[in-house]
Design goal:
- There is one protein chain.
- This protein has 3 helices and 10 strands, in the order H-E-E-H-H-E-E-E-E-E-E-E-E.
- With about 150 residues, it is an alpha+beta fold.
- A 4-stranded antiparallel β-sheet has the order 3-10-8-5, covered by helices on one side. A 4-stranded antiparallel β-sheet has the order 7-6-4-9. A two-stranded antiparallel ribbon has the order 1-2.
- The chain is elongated, with a radius of gyration of 23 Å.
- It starts with 7 loop residues before the first helix and ends with a strand.
- The relative contact order is 0.16.
């Protein structure tokens, strides 16, 4: 079947199947045709926005004044990527580092999950960890201050 002669009924059936199964896209491929039908799902925006308000109120009272000062602090450690910050290696385990403790250069200070990959973030320098500016499970942006190491 040529591209000009695409079966519109097939496209309608696939679109209906998307709705029935609540999928966001379907792709089929034969020797003569490759067809992908996709739809935008408004639920994804709602799902992404829902966790942020839950995490933000907990962080705002304790971290908001410190985060503004920490960004300008020379010992500020910023996020190298966008993702979700985890302060411990697994749920219920002790945190990698605690405020007031010494850290060594290269020591894992947190994990940032990005695209289903757990990225161990090392301390960029040795020193005393004076502030933790993120909560466990909090979404972080590139360049966002995470810790202060003096």
């Amino acid at each position: 079947m040529s591209k000009a002669g695409v079966d519109q009924e097939l496209i309608r059936q696939l679109a209906a199947l998307l709705t029935e199964t609540d999928l966001s896209e379907i792709e089929i491929e034969t020797d003569e045709l490759k067809l992908r039908v996709a739809r935008q799902v408004a639920q994804a925006v709602t799902h992404v926005a829902a966790p942020a308000p839950a995490a933000a109120p907990a962080a705002v009272p304790a971290a908001a004044p410190t985060a503004a000062d920490a960004a300008a602090h020379p010992g500020s450690v910023t996020s190298p990527m966008v993702g979700t910050a985890y302060l411990s290696p697994e749920p219920g385990a002790p945190a990698f580092v605690q405020p007031g403790k010494q850290v060594s250069e290269g020591e894992t200070i947190l994990i940032i999950e990005a695209m289903k990959t757990m990225n161990h973030i090392p301390a960029p320098r040795s020193g005393k960890l004076t502030a933790v500016l993120v909560d466990d499970g909090q979404p972080v942006e590139f360049g966002e201050p995470l810790f202060v190491i003096e």
